[in-house]
Amino acid sequence: MWTTEDSIELYGIEKWGNGYFSVNDNGNIIILPKKSPEQSVDIMDLIEEMEKSRDLEFPVLLRFPQILEDRIDEITGAFMGAIEEFDYSGTYQPIFPMKVNQRKEVIEYIIKFGAKHNIGMEVGTKAELLAALSLGLPRDAPLICNGYKDEDYLRLALSVHNLNNIIIVVDLFEEIYDILKYADAMGVVPRVGMRVKLFARGSGRWVESGGESAKFGLSTSEALELLRILDERGLKGCLKMLHFHIGSQITDIRTVKNAMNEAARIYAKVRKICDIKYLNVGGGLSVDYNGSNTATPSSANYSLQEYANDVVYTVQKICDDEEVPYPTIVSESGRAIAAYHSLLIFKIIGRKNAKSSPLHPPDDEAPIQIDDLC
Ligand SMILES: *Cc1c(COP(=O)(O)O)cnc(C)c1O
């Protein structure tokens, strides 16, 4: 007889479900938003309720805000665990990159649940900046401004600079001139970050986000030139953050290690010139969608804890080597926070069964070749 265990096995649900999804004794999918068996929802019960409701029509997107909270707690916990284990004397700062999910309710939950970890936001447009400001991000939580920066976007970021913890990231070299120009005109001393291009790159769909030819980020010579410009104007203290992002869904832990080695080395060199506080390792933390625990595109060959350990360990090792103080480690995991929390339910409007084909097995008299073909 087909059992619950058979279903769990067939669908690999415990391999990719990260403890949030399982199957109950009735054979139905259940959600465990807090990973605790005492708090679970049978999806079929929910569907029956929704069928009765006259206000709801399928498809329906269900959200489990508790899962967002659990993800933020887990990711922060993994970094804090690594920091404790290695006796790293710096700390960790979580950031949610807003482009990953811009829904008002999602951002509100992230701000609410992330408050205990002082979670910040990364924004890539003026619209996202306005949204982050209006949705109640605490004033001391970092608000990192990336993306193409026109005059409007820069003026907005600078106008709230003294009220909010804004860091404007230079991801195209020329931007520094505009940032300094408008900051000067508005009488603001800006907090600036710089995005660097690494040689290390991710793989799969987002491979173009990394490597020497990446769209965003400064080359080594541009980074040096940026430091020179700031120094020349007596603004070296403005540089607060070194940032890189080599792409999303990095499936191979070796890529993470290579990028970390390179970035930590750059941090250390820059730290000798100016008192930079944050090392921002960007996003890329994978979600193992198919549960295979491999370096294939929909998976990852590492766990969250291994990721955090490698980041913290590498930064520490290189800082010790170069004899510079440890940075606050910032990460911008987007999909790793958001991916598990929503579930789309839709009606099956038809079905096609590959097994019910009109092909009939050849009878006993048929030539052996026909039998083989079948
Ligand atoms: C898209 C993006 C992220 C999020 O990447 P994930 O792989 O979803 O974690 C983080 N930082 C920057 C700068 C991005 O552009």
Keywords:
single chain; 374 residues; alpha/beta; TIM Barrel; 2 domains; 8-stranded parallel barrel; 3-stranded antiparallel β-sheet; 13 helices; 39% helix; elongated; binds pyridoxal-5'-phosphate
Summarize the entry for a quick read.
This protein has 374 residues and is of the alpha/beta class. It has 13 helices and 13 strands. It has 2 domains: 4-63 and 341-373, no CATH class; 65-338, Alpha-Beta Barrel (TIM Barrel).
Commentary on this structure:
- This protein has helices at residues 4-11, 13-16, 43-52, 65-85, 104-114, 126-134, 151-159, 175-186, 220-232, 253-273, 304-322, 335-338, 368-373; strands at 21-23, 29-31, 41-42, 60-63, 92-97, 120-123, 142-145, 165-170, 192-195, 239-243, 278-280, 328-331, 342-345.
- An eight-stranded parallel beta barrel has the order 5-6-7-8-9-10-11-12, surrounded by seven helices. It has a three-stranded antiparallel sheet with strand order 1-2-3. The chain has a two-stranded antiparallel ribbon with strand order 4-13.
- Helix 7 crosses helix 8 (175-186).
- The chain is an alpha/beta fold and 374 residues long.
- The protein has two domains: 4-63 and 341-373, no CATH class; 65-338, TIM Barrel (Alpha-Beta Barrel).
- It contains 13 helices and 13 strands.
- It starts with a helix and ends with a helix.
- The chain is elongated and about 90 Å long.
- Bound molecules: pyridoxal-5'-phosphate.
- Pyridoxal-5'-phosphate binds at residues 97, 99-100, 122, 146, 245, 248-249, 282-285, 332-336.
